[in-house]
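User: quick one, fold this
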Amino acid sequence: MRLNIFSYQNKYFNTEVTSLPTREEIEEKYKWNLSDIYNSDEEWERDFKWVSDRIQEYSNYIGTLSKDADSLYECLKFDEETEKKLERLHLYSMLSHDGDMGVTKYQAMDDRIMSLYTQVSTASSFIRPELMKIPEDQLLKIVSSKPELNIYEHFIKNLIRSKAHTLNEKEEKLLSLAGETVQASYNTFSILTNADLTFPTIKDEQGENIKMSHGRYYAAMYSKDREYRERTFYAYYVPYKKYKNTFSSLLNGNIKSNIFTARARKYKSVREGSLDTNNIPISVYDNLINTANENLSSLHKWASLKKRLLKINELHPYDVYVSLFNETKSKTYSYEEARDIVFEAMEPLGDDYIKSLSKAFDERWLDVFETKAKRNGAYSSGSTYGVHPYVLLNWNGLLNDVFTLAHELGHNMHSYYTEQNQPYPYANYSIFVAEVASTFNESLLLNYLIKNTGNKKEKLFLLEKYLNNITSTFFRQVMFAEYEMKIYNMAENGEALTSDNLSQLYNDIYQKYWGPNMVLDGDKKYTWARIPHFYYNFYVYQYATGFAASETLSEKVLNEGKPAVDKYLNFLKSGSSDYPINLLASAGVDMNSPSPIISATQKMNKIIEEIENIIGD
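Assistant:
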C-alpha cells in the first residue's frame, strides 16, 4: 500500500490551541490501560502489603545457600517472587504518576515504592556474598544437581566471573556507604547546569529580547537565520566559560571517585571496570575508536557538502544542525497515520512481529497525547515480568514524533519478546544492546519513507535526516567516547585535568572529527563542561556501537530476508540469557570487528553521493 504520509490535521494537534487538555478530555483509546497491571489502587495496596510483610522472611535463608540444592532453589525462588511483585508495583505507581504528576496520591505511591525497593534490597543483600563464599566447583555441582536450578547456570557463572573483583563483606559495605559521596559531583553538576546557571539575554529572529536557555539553544541551532544561530551559540557558552574552573573541579571529582572504586575492585582502569559489568572486552571500545578514526573522511565529506550548500566561506559549529533541505510546508501526521506508516515500514520483519506490534495499539500499551501535568518526553517502560511493556509519548504530529513512535516501539518489542521467551533471571537486557532495537526501527522507517516518496524535496530532506542520525548517534558519540577515554588516561597517569587542558583536548578532537572545513575560533572547546554523559562512567560509547549494530542488522534484514529476520527476532527474544556481545554475534554482528563500524561510514558516503546526484540533476 502506498501511503500519503504528509497530509493530516490532527484534532489534538492544533496550532491555535494554547492550553493543554486535561487527562479526562482525552479518549480512553489514547491512554494506558493500567488494569493489565492492577484493576485498582486498592489491589496495588494489597500487593504492597504482601511484599512489606514478606521482607522479614529473607532472614530465614541466611546461611542456608550452601546446604543443598533445595535450600538454594527455595531462596532464589523466594527472591524472584518478591522482586516480580515489586517490579509490578513499581510499574503501576510510575505510570500512574507520569500520567498526571500533579496527583499527590501517585507522588506518594511512587515515593513509597522507592522506599520498599530499598528495604527489599537491604534484606536480600546477603545472597550474592553468600553465593560468592561457596567454592566454585561446589556451587556449580549444586546447580547441576537439581533440574529447576539449571536456568540459573548463566547467572551463577557470571557471578563467579565477577568474583575476582568482589571484595570481602566489610570492604563491600564501605564501598556501599561511599555510594552517595561518589554521586556528589554529578548531583552538583546537574543542579548547577539545570537550575543555577544564568544565561544572558539576546535578540531572537524577530529582534525581541529573549533569555537564553537550554531549550532555546537547541531550537536556535536549527534556525535558518545564521546571525541568530551565532548570537545564540556565543550566549549559550557564556556561563560555561565563566565557571569553567568550577566545572573542571566537578568533573575531576567524579573521575577521581570512579578511579577510587575501580582500584578498590582491582581493575586496571575505570574503563576496564565499566565494560566488565557486561563482560565487554576493552578491544570492542578500541575497535570503535580506531575504526571510526580511520574513516573520518565520511564526516569530512558531509562538512564539505554542508559548507557548499549553505554557501558560506567558513563552516562553524553553529552551522552543523541547520537543515539544508526544507520539508514540505505544514506537514503533520495523525497518530493513526503514523501507526500505519510504522506498520508498513516494519513489514520486512514478518507477520509475527506485526502481530505483536498490533497488540501495543489494540490493547492500549501507549499513552499518546500531551496533557496537563503529564511527564514530558518519551520512553518505553522496559521489561516487567508477567506484564507487557508500556510506551509514553507526547504527540505533536511532527515527523520527529513518527520517528519517536518507531524508536520507542523498538524498545517495546525488545522487552515484549524478551519477557515472552525468557525465565525471570534473563527477562531483561543489557544497556549495551538497549539501543539496537530502537535505532533498528528508525532505520527501517527512514528506508521506507525514502523509498516511498516521489517528491525530490522530501527525499533530500529524508536523506539529510539519515546523515544527521549518523552524525549525532554515531560520530558524535564516538568523539565523546574518545574524549572520555583520554581524560581518564590522563587522570589515571597522574596528569592534572585543568579547565585549559580539558578545553584544548576537546577542541583538538572536535577539529579532527569535523576536518579542515570546520573553523573553531569560538567557545566550542567548552562543550565538555555541559555534557552530562561524561559523568556516566563509560556509558556513551554504547550509543555508537548500538547504532552500528542496528545499521548492520537492518541492512541484513532488507537484503537477506527471512534468515536474517529469524536471527534478529531470536536476538530480541534472548534477553540477558548470554553476554550481549555474544547475542549480537548470534544475530550476525561482530562488534570486535571493524565491519559494522565501516558499514555505518560507507552508508554515509552512499547517502552523500545520492544527495549530490539529486541536486546535480
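User: anything notable?
Assistant: The chain has a mean pLDDT of 92.
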